[in-house]
Amino acid sequence: MARELDEKDFAILRKLAPEYSGILCPESGHEFRSILPPVSNHIAADEEDFAERVARLSGEDWGYLTDQILSGREDLGCMPEEDIETIIARIREAVSEQAAERVERLYHLSGCGML
After folding, report:
1. Which of the four pLDDT bands, split at 50, 70 and 90, describes residue 29?
2. Would residue 103 count as lying in a domain?
3. Quick one: which of 50, 78, 81, 100 could link to 92 by a disulfide (CB 3.0–4.6 Å)?
């Protein structure tokens, strides 16, 4: 489900990619509709860079992102599995084991074409 990013979303995006000031995805030229996939796929140099970037987020940021993921507003479907594992570990630490399991299940179901 595509969404329009709001100021809270852009505040999180600035933490993840302070060097990037645009609202357009660098590869597609379209406005961002999610936060984590463009950082993973287009801004972070590699898996390690992505992990360092997401480590900047607070527990509150992770709570918000988890809610967005579970409501279908933050789409993780196009992200590489190693970055999903990083996200799930961060959610496990910052939010809860239960939330991490729900995000992991959602990711795997969406990847199988079941959602």
Report:
1. very low
2. yes
3. 100
